[in-house]
């Protein structure tokens, strides 16, 4: 297993007796608003700690891991991704620098943009992008960091259905090709049914089910 959760409790938001997230699979997390989906992702990225309980990453106690090192292996894309001042090129390279990877030549950066169907110049100012374009830029940045795990919180929520399907299909196919793992929060039952190899439903009053 990539992640294992045991007897987790966090405020009045999450109550999980057991949960397994398999390695090299696409796990979709669904559930109504307020069920703790985003909170769970933050815990998997050591941005929040449970009040009690244990979270294991590849068999190791996650709460004893170095957060910075962990976030280089487990990259989280929040609902509102951070876009930095400057060009698209700069924004992608910031991700590479954080991951401790060498800066790539422009052809590889453009390949990452192509993967998420973002036809833009690397010299374009990232702040001029629309909300959906910023989401795709952040997705390209996460991809090129080459992590073990992607934690994706509604990564295509700002896209229309057609673009969402194209972006997710190419991105998920590449993850599978690379034997990587993804945990995807989505409000879309269609996306969960199409791409989820493992689906977990979180309930508002605590707990989860497959």
TrEMBL record:
InterPro entries: AAA+_ATPase, ABC_transporter-like_ATP-bd, ABC_transporter-like_CS, P-loop_NTPase
GO molecular function: ATP binding; ATP hydrolysis activity
Entry keyword annotation includes Transport: yes
UniProt KW ATP-binding keyword: yes
Ranges for domain ABC transporter: 3-210
Keywords from the UniProt entry: ATP-binding, Nucleotide-binding, Transport
PANTHER family membership: ABC TRANSPORTER I FAMILY MEMBER 17 (PTHR43423:SF1)
Protein name stated in the entry: ATP-binding cassette domain-containing protein
Source organism (scientific name): Metabacillus litoralis
